[in-house]
Amino acid sequence: MRLEDFHSGELRQQFQYKSFSPLPVNQVWTWEDPQINTLLEQAARSLAEINAFSLIVPDVDLFIQMHVLKEASTSSKIEGTQTQMDEALQNEEDILPENRDDWKEVQNYIQAMNTAIDELSTLPLSNRLLRRTHETLMQGVRGEAKTPGDFRTSQNWIGGTSLTDAIFVPPDHNEVVDLMSDLEKFWHNEEIAVPDLIRIAISHYQFETIHPFLEGNGRIGRLLIPLYFVSKGLLSKPCLYLSAYLEKNKGAYYDALTTVRASHDMIHWIKFFLVAINVTA
User: Which of 22, 185, 202, 272 could be stapled to 9 by a disulfide with Cβ–Cβ 3.0 to 4.6 Å?
Assistant: First the structure.
């Protein structure tokens, strides 16, 4: 598939609304735009440099622990959670009662991230791992009744008050398992020559478009990025997270994802993602 010829998918009529069915991604991807090559080289170099630093910096695990804390706070902030880093460091009994739900969501994110990274030593990056991570993320917080650890079996939507006025309606739930299976195969398909940074850029877009869970898709989708890097050996330590960049550029981030679906412009999204990697690293 040439990126220049990419078609993102189609709208399908579902009762009184239309859902969006994305194109499967487990295929060869090529492009002619030379700027992608330049941005890919810059991002790969920056990623290699931060990986090298992670191997020589003393007490790097302490740095990563604090970095994970910042990531958890920032990633949750994108979803509307307001816990700051200083609060996240406190014990639950020291948190004001009205702030404890937000505090718990951040703690769950930290636990989900650390557990997922540890499990990569015994499990491949897989839908099974993502579902287990999602279950940890949603324990005892808002959304805990929305089937934690399971792909959705009903329709969800983004923006608006209902399916009829939603900004975006992901694919019908009957398509989720097949689409997520295709995505998992894409991560591990060694028969296609696609650079890892391009694969994870496409994968993040595809995950957020499928929106496979009823709740927590943004956080799991952002967590997928360092999990992919570690699983592929691009990072020896989970020392790079994009949430701070994405929160700072939230409008451009959502616009780039929307542009793929609405205008079939995957090139714009990949360029945005590669710049995010380079700047963050």
Answer: 22
